[in-house]
Amino acid sequence: MATKPVLVLKVGGALLQxxxxxxxxxxxxAEMIAAGQQVLLVHGGGCLVDEQxxxxxKETIKLDGLRVTPEDQIPIVVGALAxxxxxxxxxxxxxxxxxxxxxSLGDGNMxxxxxxxxxxxxxxxxxxxxxxxxxxxxxxxxxxxCSSIAISSQGDMLNVNADQAATALxxxxxxxxxxxxxxxxxxxxxxxxxxxxxxxxxxxLVAQGVIEKGMKVKVEAALEVAQWMGKPVQVASWRDAExxxxxxxxxxxxxxxxx
Length: 259
Ligand SMILES: Nc1ncnc2c1ncn2[C@@H]1O[C@H](COP(=O)(O)OP(=O)(O)O)[C@@H](O)[C@H]1O
Ligand SMILES: CC(=O)N[C@@H](CCC(=O)OP(=O)(O)O)C(=O)O
Description:
- The protein is α/β, with parallel strands linked by helices.
- The protein has a single domain (about 5-255), classed as Carbamate kinase (3-Layer(aba) Sandwich).
- It contains eight helices and 14 strands.
- The strands form four sheets. Strands 5-8-2-1-11-13-14-12 form an eight-stranded mixed sheet, with helices on both faces. Strands 3-4 form a two-stranded antiparallel sheet.
- The longest helix has 22 residues, at about 75-95.
- The chain is globular, with a radius of gyration of 17 Å.
- The relative contact order is 0.16.
- It holds the Pfam family AA_kinase.
- Belongs to the acetylglutamate kinase family. ArgB subfamily.
């Protein structure tokens, strides 16, 4: 019997500040895993990074939704993402009875990483490399929980946008990607959910400034995977219990980004 594709769920940082949201998501993940679905969780933690940078007297600068990451901020960024955020999610997973393996992009030869753009400092761009490590963990019925900290072959720790991290891992395992944020999907200029978007519609809404900042990065990451896989990628909400239930049943939720 052919196994279903791995479900790659990406969650944004705001989830980590919502006990109820984490509990609901982990319950949904536990149900899916119990039904034989392999689930890989990729996470951000942008708001935790913001908090930690401020607490350490550092400034936050973003360019087109990506955090400019100078060398002196790396210990704080790595601590917040690969440390605190990752362990908060592992703790929530444990509470739901999930056996998880906490990891980062730098583990197990999963991706190659290089500096994305000198103007962004130690921000990484990653490409899928070797799925052996991930597939072993998934085959045990364990849930990998992966942060977006990568390591380059030069030995630099790199800060990768978590939607782009999820893109690389979804390609690596040929999985079904769902990007879960704190909004119900991509919203139009009036705040209404858009059920489906293709490349030219995305370009139009970006040019109009309707899709911006983190959502621009997310939609572009989703489009890249949709085109690569030849199937839609969903942008939805971890806040919405109904969307999570639909997701558990294998239905489509939020905005479908079409190939
Ligand atoms: N058209 C849009 N529809 C929905 N959200 C948008 C849109 N344009 C910008 N955004 C912003 O993008 C945010 C989601 O991106 P981001 O903060 O990076 O989320 P996450 O941390 O979940 O990855 C929303 O909370 C919203 O503020
Ligand atoms: C380069 C870059 O922007 N990295 C992101 C990584 C975390 C992230 O993407 O978190 P969310 O999913 O919560 O937005 C950052 O430093 O905020």
